[in-house]
Amino acid sequence: MSALIEGLFNGISIGSVLLIAALGLAIVFGLMGVINLAHGELMMLGAYTTFVVQNVFKPLGEPWFELYILFSLPVAFIVSALFGLALERGVIRFLYGRPLETLLATWGVSLILRQFVRSVNWLLVISIAVFCLCFFGGMAILKRLSHWERIRNWAITILLFISSAISIALGFLIDRVGTLALTKPWFSARNVDVTAPTWLRGGWKILGFQMPYARLFIIALTIICLLGVYWFLNRSTWGLRIRAVTQNRSMSACLGIPTAKVDALTFALGSGLAGVAGCAVSLLGSVGPNTGQNYIVDTFMVVVVGGVGNLFGTVVAGLSIGIINYLIGSGTLALIFTSTESLKPLVDFFLFFATSSMAKVMVFAIIITFLQVKPAGLFPQKGRTAEL
Description:
Elements: H1 2-32, H2 39-57, H3 62-65, H4 68-90, H5 99-119, H6 122-142, H7 148-177, H8 180-183, E1 203-206, E2 209-212, H9 213-235, H10 237-247, H11 249-254, H12 259-281, H13 296-306, H14 311-329, H15 332-337, H16 344-352, H17 356-373, H18 384-387
Antiparallel strand pairs: 1-2
Helix pairs in contact: 1-9, 1-12, 1-13, 1-14, 2-4, 2-12, 4-12, 6-7, 9-10, 10-12, 13-14, 14-17
């Protein structure tokens, strides 16, 4: 019984990590229908933001360093939300209703983000800032012209070429005369460590096993995020607008709802939640460029199994997959059945899958079998939303 309770707790903690990672994806993929393969990299941005905030608070001394994780959460949300907003405005809004193109575009963005984290330095930041200043500054000036709409496409092409040329030339010039501090990578390809505050180290001993404080914190954070998202979607004005646009975009536009702003807000919200998930994941291990890739497949599984667009289904699927994954991978199920001699073949079967990699194979097989019976997930959409 003690082993079963310990297994259930660890499974719930793993499910909470999956759930907080899938929560943003449930909004972007479930409510907007956008297949965002860069969602894992948005988590990675949140994790690296936590690392940066930790380094900012470290010189401040003990009292402030203990609180850095509480400051990291909103900062990670804002950083990931701003990047998600830029991604939606710059790429996604041109690809609505075209899932294959969206998938390929976000996959490309994920590759760019991973390489950006590996190579980012002050020189690259200066070059990007100069490009943005030239391009968006030129756009702001040209938009004042009366015949802007006629020259819009040509103007954007020319501005892109000129801005890129200026930023690249300036980058080469700084590289020739600059110092090592400007060209040294901030993070490189190596993983970086996030040190948990003292109050998140150790654990709470109960019934012969220990509940780590870090995982209890993640479970509490997941509950807070769930309640916040539920309140926002069901009680706030913009949440009601998001639900209206999700159900019937044309009618919502006729009623005066700014659908473009709703799309941007929805994508920013989902991206910000991915940043919070990255902040939580950073407490469980080192952070690297491939951190998000370790969760992207599992998060899509949670959303699909729960039912696309159903937050309650996402909760049930996340916890279920986490519990099943841990019970199989840790050998807890095999340990439970060892007391009965007649179940030895079943014990041998579960012992074969009692590793983290083989447990994932088993979970994948269970999910594939489940989707053959209920392809729309645990809680499929009904009514007009399902028809759309």
